[in-house]
Amino acid sequence: MTRRKDPENLLKLMTYVLARHPDEFGLVPDDDGFIRMKDLIKAITEEEGWGFVRQAHINEVLITFRDHSFFVEEDRIRAMHAQESAVRVTGVTPPKLLYHCVRRTAYPVVYERGIDAMGRHHVFLATTDALALRIGKRRDPKPVLLTVQALKASQQGLTFSRQGEAIYLVEHIPVGLFSGPPLPKEKEESKKKKDPSIQVTLEFEAGGFLLDMER
Questions:
Q1: Given phi > 0 = left and psi -120 to 50 = alpha, else beta, which region is 16?
Q2: Of 2, 41, 124, 139, which is least surrounded by CB within 10 A?
């Protein structure tokens, strides 16, 4: 654990994540190549042995290794020289099925209107359900997993991009091109209506006798 807390080891991990394989960690750079700092930290802390990482540890790396290959702009960070494996490729043919998670509270809307970016620059679709759940749990501890008919969507004219080997991006997935669990049924409160034609007799037991209060 002490070795892993060494800033040099964190530098190596940051380089791998940002410059080589952000998709492996469920991260997708924006159109300018940046990743939000909090998203980077979250992805790192999900890795075994790295749960201690906070903003202060990132700052320590940036200060200690001044010849680092990162560029920081406000709350975003990117690799200055991203490798080909970390560069987004547009206009690709996706696999037959991809996976996506949504928040439980958003699922009824998604069920009716389709999958939208919801605050992101694209809809992120993972090649495995495990990666989709990893991304989804950053917004909801128990997200709803959806299976997307990606190839069919592409054949219908939707444009897909690929981030690395593990993540695909698209602007929107219409209803009918994904499947998920049925919507949870609303719990109906059962209200007993009293029939005015029926007289209700209240009886109380006192000792060994039953007393009719109406008498």
A1: alpha
A2: 2
Which residues, listed in sequence order, are joined to residue 161 by a DSSP beta bridge?
A: 90, 169
Measure the CA angle with vertex 167, ends 38 and 70; round to 5°: 40
* For the chain, the helix, strand and coil percentages under 3-state DSSP, each to the nearest 5: 30, 25, 50
- Asked whether the predicted pLDDT for residue 91 surpasses 70, the reply is yes
- Count Cβ neighbours within 10 Å for each residue of 98-129 and write b for 16 or more, e otherwise: bbbbbbeebbeebbeeebbeeeeebbbbbbeb
Planar angle of CA 120, 123, 126, nearest 5 degrees? 120
DSSP H stretches of helix in the chain: 7-15, 37-45, 55-64, 107-113, 129-136, 150-155
Give the mean pLDDT of 131-139: 96
**3-state DSSP of 147-188:** EECHHHHHHCCCCEEEECCCEEEECCECCCCEECCCCCCCCC
Distance, CA of 131 to CA of 127 (rounded, Å)? 7
Top pLDDT among 126 and 119 is at 126
